[in-house]
Write a structure and sequence with these properties.
- The chain has 7 helices and 12 strands.
- A 6-stranded antiparallel barrel has the order 1-2-5-4-3-6. The protein has a 6-stranded antiparallel beta barrel with strand order 7-8-11-10-9-12.
- 34% of the residues are buried.
């Protein structure tokens, strides 16, 4: 589990089909490597990987074929990447819950500098993408949380479908992450808010049970909590 608050930057180098070497390049090297041990989880551009070797200035991680196919890691040789170590019990949660399980790849449309922020617009995976990528759009809502390259951001605006969204990035987040390197068309990893996914699942389960009660655990969960509808969520402070 991560927070989406980036600790430092690194460079990514492929060491074969599934091994990636990450070398820290920022002044936060000690913060990243201080207590990192073999087997720990590390988010690289928002992708949760497992450290299998600790180096003096970085580490080596393993990436499965599925991870490479669902993220930009296989598309970024020698790229600058965001690094965040996993959340420790008792640590501050300043961003939002980020799992490191990337939903799909989007791209930057434009980045406009304003007086006190950078307004950035991204596309979510297009409707013609595979089924698992099309599932991102329903979870993109105004003022909701989203992770772009592992960075916790707030959706400032989006279209009704969720095919595109805008975020306002403060100067610190812009200068200390690889958002500063993005150009129109640059690919980014996108992870929708995990809380939204579970809320949507419970709503779907509730509506489906009336016609299909074949899933015993879903039926038990919905029955024990009552019918979960948008009105129910609003009344209980979830919307």
């Amino acid at each position: 589990m991560f927070t989406g608050l980036i600790q430092g930057l690194g460079t990514l180098q492929a060491l074969g089909s599934d091994r990636l070497q990450v070398s820290c390049v920022s002044g936060n090297t000690d913060a990243i490597l201080r207590d990192l041990t073999i087997g720990d989880s590390v988010a690289i551009d928002g992708v949760c990987l497992t450290a299998v070797e600790i180096l003096s200035q970085g580490f080596v991680a393993i990436a499965s074929p599925e991870t490479l196919s669902r993220s930009t890691l296989g598309l970024k040789p020698n790229a600058c990447v965001n690094i965040e170590t996993s959340l420790r019990a008792g640590s501050k949660l300043g961003g939002h819950f980020v799992t490191g399980h990337v939903d799909g790849i989007g791209s930057l449309v434009e980045s406009v500098a304003t007086a006190n922020a950078w307004e950035m617009r991204f596309t979510a995976p297009p409707a013609a993408a595979s089924v698992w990528q099309r599932q991102i759009a329903p979870y993109i809502v105004p003022k909701g949380s989203i992770a772009v390259n592992g960075i916790s951001l707030t959706v400032a605006d989006c279209d009704a479908v969720g095919n595109w969204f805008e975020v306002a990035v403060i100067p610190h987040s812009y200068s200390e992450t690889n958002l500063r390197d993005l150009k129109p068309g640059s690919w980014v990893n996108i992870e929708a808010d995990i809380l939204g996914k579970y809320v949507a699942k419970f709503i779907r389960s509730s509506s489906m049970l009336s016609s299909d009660s074949s899933s015993a655990w879903e039926e038990t969960a919905v029955t024990s909590m009552g019918e979960i509808t948008p009105d129910f969520l609003a009344e209980n402070g979830f919307i």
